[in-house]
Design a protein that fits this description.
The chain is α+β, with helices and mostly antiparallel strands. The protein contains 22 helices and 23 strands. Among the domains are: 185 residues, Penicillin-binding protein 2a (Domain 2) (Alpha-Beta Complex), CATH 3.90.1310.10; 66 residues.
Length: 658
């Protein structure tokens, strides 16, 4: 009996062993005969790496061929996730050497979804001494990859920073938007300025190096290289020397106005070719060096950058044009035939409407004033008179739009606002939205307060008492709302403010300079542009940008001529005569003082030169910098002197030759 039991168990055991053996042999045969190619490929992938070689981004040059933005090689450190148990130890050790937080490295790996054999960049522009330490500990750092990659090299530090923009690792939303363009996490992407607008052209085609590695991802030998193709280059319309002058003068003037006690935080200036729209200089102050983005910035660095006021491009910020807007009224008056340029008033220094006197900036008045003198001396009373009594808001708005106010110019860099040409409708919508934002939450709070109370009560008398209390609170809020509701409608003082470029007028310095260029060139509006052409790495022209006409002002030549002559008087005998005293070339300009509630006024100045044969126009704004002539005028003078090659060393307020 026992013998039979043993034999039975032996047969079962032999069957099991035979089955297992057959399965193993079958699996081995399957793998060897049918899956050979697949596993051979996997084996090669396991010991062969395809390391990308980052292509240099396209470079940028000024109109004369001066390189403004190029590339330089730097060390980068990446980590390849190998799925090893030692990953945490490697991360901690690398973090210590690079001075990083280990959690930051783990976060980068997780963003890559811990995909094996995919390099994740940890640091860029790593110092040589740090690279040496990493190399010394290479055996203990499996997966660490040291490479040399090109990064941006700003040849003039912070010059043109707001125009150029900067590059940074691609953001998640940008990656999703461009997922069919071959981008990967860790790739560099233009974030602002021309870097962003011309990203498809500036981005090159990455190459690759095929490398055999050991089990710890250490390179053993090269198996072949596919060379990267650099990105295309941009040739700008900007003149590097004019740009240098613009930035230096702007900084000098802002600092000078601070010394005088003004709270000026910054400013902007832009010069444009009036015959083509080509930008010759575009500066915003404060500025910053875009190279700070190469290694990424901390939260504190980001906050400090915001506090410094260096981030916004003030050329694309909105300001009141102030009295520089007065030429719109002059042109409108003459073009409609409603005002003869010789028509004059006797200015007492104020304008009376109803029982209120609106005071001119010159308390004793300007005496006998015609249109040209009114522009020259910036007589408020004259323009209040024709703005309120002759033209009216609709005509003023119409002519403002003829000059391009209230619409984007189409400049290549992102972030340009439309500005605001005041109309009764726009005022209503703007103020209605403002009041609703304040009082709608108050109405909603009352509803939320009484809703549960009314739902819980069953007593009709108590319900009626609660309803009355609720309506009483609503009436109180409604009364507050109604105190301001009258200002939803257009008032006479709105027309008076608009006539002087104040109130709801809001335009960018770029719109202002295009407006002045149209006055200077006889009424043609050109699209401002910064890029002259795109060229390949070997110098071939890929795309060329020609001057683009975007409209005609469409007014009588005599209307523009009156504005031109009045602006010429501004710099000879008017509000900017002190600034341009002794300047050898005649300039046509206009000063403006933009009122800011509770703060120092903005200094605004627009001009073109030479007067008889205009070539370029300039608009300058000094934030909270006082009067237009003394606050912003010196910046325009410096730019004209540089453009016209004038050795201008005259001492004047806001200027020192150093």
């Amino acid at each position: 009996m026992e013998r039979k039991t043993v034999e039975k168990k032996t047969r079962v055991l032999l069957f099991l062993v035979s089955s297992i053996f057959i399965i193993l042999v079958g699996r081995l045969a399957y793998l060897m005969l049918l899956e050979t190619e697949r596993f051979e490929t996997l084996a090669k992938q396991n010991h062969i790496r395809l390391n990308p070689i980052i292509a240099p981004r396209g470079e940028m040059y000024d109109r004369n061929g001066v390189k403004i933005l190029g590339n330089k090689p730097v060390y980068t450190v990446s980590l390849v996730y190998l799925g090893l148990k030692e990953t945490d130890q490697v991360v901690n050790r690398v973090a210590g050497i690079l001075g990083m937080n280990p959690m930051e490295i783990m976060s980068k790996l997780e963003e890559q979804e811990l995909r094996k054999f995919q390099p994740v960049r940890l640091a860029t522009d790593v110092p040589l001494e740090t690279i040496t330490v990493l190399e010394e500990q290479r055996l203990d750092l499996p997966g660490v990859v040291i490479d040399v990659e090109p990064v941006r090299n700003y040849h003039f530090d912070s010059m043109l920073s707001h125009v150029l923009g900067y590059v940074q690792e691609i953001k998640q939303e940008q990656l999703q938007r461009n997922q069919d363009q071959g981008y990967r996490l860790g790739d560099m992407y233009g974030q602002e300025g021309l870097e962003n607008s011309f990203e498809p052209y500036l981005r090159g085609q990455n190459g690759a190096r095929q490398v055999e590695v050991d089990a710890q991802a250490r390179p053993v030998r090269d198996l072949g290289v596919k060379e990267p193709i650099p990105g295309n280059n941009l040739v700008l319309t900007v003149d590097a020397e004019l740009q240098r002058t613009a930035e230096a003068s702007l900084e000098r003037q802002v600092l000078y106005m601070r010394k005088l006690g003004y709270e000026s935080k910054g400013g902007a200036v832009v010069m444009i070719d009036i015959k083509t729209g080509a930008i010759r200089a575009m500066a915003s102050y404060p500025t910053y060096n875009p190279s700070i983005w190469i290694n990424g910035i901390t939260q504190k660095q980001w906050e400090d950058l915001q506090k410094s006021g260096a981030l916004p491009n003030r050329v694309l910020q909105l300001y009141p044009p102030a009295s520089t807007f007065k030429m719109v009224l002059a042109v409108a008056g003459v073009d409609t035939g409603k005002v003869d340029p010789t028509w004059a008033i006797s200015d007492p220094g104020y304008y009376i409407f109803g029982d209120k006197a609106f005071r001119d900036w010159k308390p004793d008045g300007h005496g006998r004033v015609d249109m040209r003198k009114a522009i020259s001396e910036s007589c408020n009373t004259y323009f209040w008179t024709i703005g309120h009594r002759v033209l009216g808001v609709d005509t003023i708005s119409n002519y403002a739009r003829k000059f391009g106010f209230g619409e984007r110019t189409g400049i290549e860099i992102p972030g340009e606002p439309k500005g605001n040409v005041p109309t009764p409708d726009s005022k209503y919508k703007r103020n209605k939205a403002f009041l609703d934002a304040i009082y709608n939450p108050k109405f909603e709070a009352i509803e939320e307060k009484y809703k549960p109370l009314l739902a819980d009560t069953k007593d009709p008398a108590e319900r009626e008492r609660l309803e009355q209390a609720k309506q009483k609170e609503r009436r109180a809020v409604q009364n507050q709302y109604d105190q301001y509701k009258w200002d939803l409608n257009w008032q006479v003082y709105d027309t008076l403010n608009m006539s002087l470029g104040q109130g709801y007028n809001e335009y960018t310095p770029l719109q202002m300079v295009n407006y002045v260029a149209a006055i200077a060139n006889g009424g043609t509006r050109w699209k401002p542009y910064l890029v002259q052409k795109i060229t390949s790495p070997d110098g071939r022209t890929i795309k060329e940008f020609k001057p683009q006409k975007i409209g005609d002002v469409g007014v009588k030549p005599e209307a523009l001529r009156v504005a031109q002559e009045g602006m010429n008087m501004v710099t000879r005998v008017g509000t900017a005569s002190g600034i341009f005293s002794g300047f050898p070339i005649q300039v046509a300009g206009k000063t403006g003082t933009g009122e800011v509630f509770g703060r120092d006024n903005h200094a605004v100045f627009v001009a073109y030169a030479p007067f008889e044969n205009p070539e370029v126009a300039v608009a300058a704004v000094i934030d909270n910098g006082g009067k237009g002539g003394t606050g912003a005028g010196p910046v325009a003078r410096d730019l004209f002197a540089a453009y016209l090659d004038i050795q201008d060393v005259q001492q004047r307020p806001g200027y020192s030759p150093e």
